[in-house]
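Honest question from a wet-lab person: if I give you the sequences of every part of a complex, can you actually get the arrangement of the whole thing, not just the pieces? Trying it with mine:
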Amino acid sequence: MLEGLYVAHSDLITYTADDVHCLVTANKVEGKVGIATGGGSGHLPLFLGYVGKGMLDGCSVGDVFQSPSAEQMLAVTKAIDSGAGVLYIYGNYNGDIFNFDMAAEMADFEENIKVLSVVAGDDVASAAPSAPGEKSTRRGVAGIFFVYKCAGAAASKMKTLEEVKRIAEKAAANIRTMGVALSSCVVPRVGRPGFSIGEDDMEIGMGIHGEPGIRHGKLESADKITDEMLEKIVADLPYADGDEVDVLVNGLGATTLDEQYIVTRRISQYLTGKNIKVHRFYVGEYATALEMAGISLSLFKLDDELKELMEQPACTPFFKQL
Amino acid sequence: MLEGLYVAHSDLITYTADDVHCLVTANKVEGKVGIATGGGSGHLPLFLGYVGKGMLDGCSVGDVFQSPSAEQMLAVTKAIDSGAGVLYIYGNYNGDIFNFDMAAEMADFEENIKVLSVVAGDDVASAAPSAPGEKSTRRGVAGIFFVYKCAGAAASKMKTLEEVKRIAEKAAANIRTMGVALSSCVVPRVGRPGFSIGEDDMEIGMGIHGEPGIRHGKLESADKITDEMLEKIVADLPYADGDEVDVLVNGLGATTLDEQYIVTRRISQYLTGKNIKVHRFYVGEYATALEMAGISLSLFKLDDELKELMEQPACTPFFKQL
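Yes, you can. This is the full assembly:
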């Protein structure tokens, strides 16, 4: 898979340290803050696909649903740093946190590269109530796309590492996502589905590795499912009357674009009813769970700064905005 | 689905004649040849998704796997003509041919709009041997994307209707496609799969509406399947030592991007062995068959003129090139 990616997109991406798992931009910009992400395979276009102009500079990737190693993250860090420091943006999973923290320490002590980190968690379903100061259990899912986009645009404007971090944190705090799965997926090494969902059933709130959802039930219409998810998303931040948002309608792998647009229509109706204005819709496969059938919805609450960053151009293998 | 499309992409597309099935560009260019396509729903991003800047100007769309009507095609034709005439580019299916021919006659007699047509047929599996002068049985499948791209770029350069037609015909003649299906799909109105493929089986050469393929057999590795398809594709045109091609690796709906890149890797190896040079790879879902699992491969033989047109920018809901 990785070899195919490099063959197809050699104008935008290459790899470092003789390791195809260590993907870096083919168009390094001197003096710019480098942005790296990473995570397990099986989520294309996440994470690899957002390395390019105006977004990320590097990405280390592990086996399917497994974290890359700290050494791989460090190799990417070294390759993309050009003196302005490196920002890590990744999802809230223990393996990734452990390895990225170790890579950041190694970069600091061994390479004298300043690294800051933003851990994104946008999933409504996994946000268990926690005491103040406790670590969030909120998983990072498709909404991390918005964090990449805003941080990438900020770095392209040659902002400092601290500024890019501030923007990434603000963006991450303004995103909420919820998913629904209609089928399971097969991790190739395992060779059979990790769980099963009945033919007429669905699992609302399921994670992108098959983590259990918050409600298992019979299939309902696209409109009803959309309403149920939006109700939880809107209440969670909360998004309020007069807010402006970007919306991501994300296919999890096997769900048709037709169905994604049926859901898009309902989102528009629902948000109009709440007087929440949509700045832009992004519809398609942005973060998948292999061949899982299902969809996730993300709302990203905008202010003037974030909106302007979302409108900047970008060119990566999977996301192009003019 | 259509309402969702208009909501999400109002900067690029709108509709005419108070009929959401009659999609037209939101950015009409005066004096430019208009390009229209059309066909059944269920193939997103085909056909609708390629209306925008640098590609198509209009598209009429029918129910799932059904042709739009001649009246709908005519409505689109009237909306996109600005005096330079309109070119129809569509796939080789009887319903579409019948309706587009009727629309062209009505445009000519009733509206005084000059219409020319190019019927694209790129599918290797459906090309039954025919006597000279006989109508081709070759179906139009994913490769029509290349025809849209070249014709759209030519029209954007303000070439005449005859010139745009010449380029579209040359492009169409240089494309060959072959598909493999691993599962069926459900036409919503019917509510059950139109055919079945065993869990461990595949159908090589299957059409995007489930038309029978040329070989049914047990599943094989991605490399073996790719080699078998490329052998037939390369022999059919034929593509020869020293040729330069654009390559389209197209997911049919439920097949992961990971798998598409595994196939991309093998294509690169295979064509290198034949000394056929790849100009660019296009990988992703470009023409689907609802939620069918499977993939199609297209080769597009380039000359200097076609290559230059492929490199021009485009911006549509589904295809953006900078």
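Two things worth pointing out. The first helix of chain A runs from residue 2 to 8. DSSP finds eight helices and 14 strands in chain A.
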